[in-house]
Design goal:
The chain is 75% helix and 0% strand. The chain has 618 residues and is mostly helical. The chain has one domain: Sodium/glucose cotransporter, CATH 1.20.1730. The N and C termini lie far apart (51 Å).
Amino acid sequence: MHPIDLAIILVYIAAVVVAGIVLSRRAAEGVEGYFLAGRSVPWYLLGISNASGMFDITGTMWMVMLLFVYGLKSTWIPWVWPMFNQIFMMVFLAAWVRRSKAVTGADWLRTRFGAGRGLELAHAGVVLFALVAVVASVAVAFKGVGKFSATFLPGDLTANQYATIVMGFTALYVVVGGMYSVVFTDVLQFLLLTVASVMIGFIAMSKVSGEAIAAATPAGWDTLWFGWKLKLDWSELLPAANNAIENDGYLLFAPFVAMALIKGLLASVAGPTPGYDMQRVLATRDDREASLMSGIVSLVLFVPRYFLIGGITALALIYYSDSLRGQAQPDYEQILPYVIENFVPVGVSGILLAGLLAAFMSTFDSTVNSGAAYLVVDVFQRYVKPDAKKSTLMIASYSASIAIVLVGIFIGWRANNINQTIQWIVGGLYGGYAAPNVLKWVWWRLNGVGYFSGMAVGVIVALAITQKAEFMDWLGTAAPALHERLLPVASNDVYLFPILLLSSGFAAIVVSLVTSPDDESVLKEFYRTVRPWGFWTPIRKLVERDDPNFCSDANFLRDMVNCGVGIAWQVALCALPVFVVIRKWSEAIGCLAVIVVTMLVLKINWYDRLKVSTPSES
């Protein structure tokens, strides 16, 4: 590494550590200050901070691989996350979550289920979910930042040693500065990433022509639209890419997109998982700002991120394809080092590497701070010392942050294949999340015991599904014809989502119906405060009886129309920078037109209808 590039990286690391120390006094004002920045940070800064946490380099490189192999059709694949959950947050869910005035996702459950055995079971399930997911994320970040640092940073340390050093520096500002530090450094990191993304995009445009891209890719690579089958034939250009398409389970593309959409819609309505996304919502000043915060995430995240993805992919298609053709199993992770080494000048490399390092740090700091909130608020303050003084809670907050970092590093050091292990755990946890969390919003009769039962059954079924490879091996011997018919579906977990949904939803509904409903006063207060749409008629009548002037502003049809418009807006935001990089100008203009029209519709049908909360409501 050139000394100038190394100096840029060191200055950046020093700056974020100093920022955390400077902000430590404000963070020490109390638990709400430490974990929610006193609910005083403007919504647009929280939105940029949230976007920065999502701009992780591991996900970005996965999307580079997708764009390389699948072209513009890769825009639809992240729907399995689902990528468009921020649209649902923007339109209605962020406001619903913020009206609870909670500090964490588990703390929020009290507003829905009240007190008693049901709440304790639901609370324990969400806390366990959050803590395992947080530690898993830290461990994955440990392996990722170690591999990144060993590739680019000077010295002959091992990947684990590099990871420990980088996470140690990051932990300094996270522990002492709390969420004030996280938000400030996230904004700084996002600006750095944006500059790096624009630079890579323009470097690619100066080095690669649209005609060269067309010659290096199969027919249909540069279009968003698709049929029942994918129909991308790499046989003449990169035969191994055809194997990747088959192994990924995307040959039947229309059924995949349809199932990803269904799964994504349900997962989006379920609401945010208990992590830094929900923490940003709870940190806003009121429900209107919570909606605006979620809305800005898509706008500021996707354009620079996809400009980076498009630039890296364009350079790799022209200059790195020969190297990939020489590999029996192409290693797409080597694309980024190749691009930096061969196309990024001195100084710009330092900015880019600092930006990529910032992507790791941004996700890491947000995860640690949100995880510590669960340990302090939902475990220590709830069960260990309910009457703890502010000073005691602050010591607990520092200790919890340090503990999460240490446990994540410990697992990272000891695990040989952390990604496989963590995907198995978190995949199971997330699999059981959708159905009970949709029901908690839309069905008054769901109680705490039913909620816990639905999540537990969903997790068990999801973990059993992870053994499908063994089942398919047995089926290949026992019934080869059936094995052949099921193989295109079994290769992608998204097709198994209906099993998870039905099993967890059935358990949640049945257990709720055979047990007593939650306290009527809790349900009335929840409905009066949150004002969700759904099957709440018995509770709505009770609220209207007590307050004849009550009128819920929930509108299912309007919200669904806005979500559909928002998804189209988001797809255009993703595709536009890629079309620009590969010089498909008519398609780029079409995307720009979609962005303008959808934003105009959202302005009239969503933004203009956002109400300014009164102090009592916020």
